[in-house]
Amino acid sequence: MCCYYYSTAVAGLQTTRPACWGRGDAYCKIRQTHQPSQNSPRREKISGEISRLEERKIAVQSDYDGVVRQLMEQYELSVSEAQQAAQPLEDLQAAQRELQSLKAKIRALGTVNVAAISEYEEVFARYQFLTAQVQDAQKAKQELEDLIESLTTEMQRIFSESFSIINRSAAERHGWS
Fold first, then answer.
1. Which pLDDT tens digit goes with each residue over 3-45?
2. Is the dihedral of CA 130, 135, 139, 145 positive or negative?
3. CA 82, CA 10: separation in Å to the nearest integer?
4. Distance between CA atoms of residues 6 and 87, nearest Å
5. What distance in Å separates the CA atoms of residue 168 and residue 172, rounded to the nearest whole number?
6. How far apart are CA 131 and CA 123, in angstroms?
7. What CA–CA distance (Å, rounded) separates 4 from 89?
8. Could you write out the three-class secondary structure of 73-115?
9. In this predicted structure, which of 5-9, 53-57, 69-73 has the lowest mean pLDDT?
């Protein structure tokens, strides 16, 4: 709806601007047809009208340029894009109330944290680093558990063999068996 508001303003300025220029051009032609030596009241009236219309032309052009600049800065739209996106308003006052309501809601959201993107990137990099550390620690833990199990099995085998040898040796010495 904002796009429509601005595109309507742009369209209004466009229709106003050529009309002013057209009248200014007509008065320029009148100016050219009169001799500079004539100092009649009509000439002064026309000269005053020309000046007024030129001022109006400058003001309208300034307004037009401001609206076009605002379209580009706030909405990143060209005039033609705004005209294409424009939708007719059924109730201008309702649209303006809705616009004010939306602006109030945007203000209620608070200020924008422009550093949030870089902060997110830093936190995400830290998260990835810590995740990799946790994975490395879990892998090291599993390797240690496997090593402990392997050593325990090997120690039990060596103990059993040694115990058997000691048992046989003791049995031979004491005549058991």
1. 444 444 444 444 444 444 444 555 555 555 544 545 688 888 9
2. positive
3. 9
4. 11
5. 6
6. 12
7. 8
8. HHHCCCHHHHHHHCCCCCCHHHHHHHHHHHHHHHHHCCCCCCC
9. 5-9
Return the C-alpha torsion angle 41, 47, 49, 51, nearest 10: -150
Would you state the structure tokens that stand for residue 75, as one six-digit string?
A: 């909405």
| Chain segment 90-128, per-residue pLDDT in tens | 888 999 999 999 999 999 988 888 889 999 999 999 999
57 token code pair? 């032309």
CA quadruple 74, 76, 77, 78: dihedral, nearest 10: 110
Tokens 């009241």 belong to residue: 41
177 secondary structure, DSSP code = -
Total residue length of the chain: 177
Give the start-end residues of each E strand in 14-97.
none
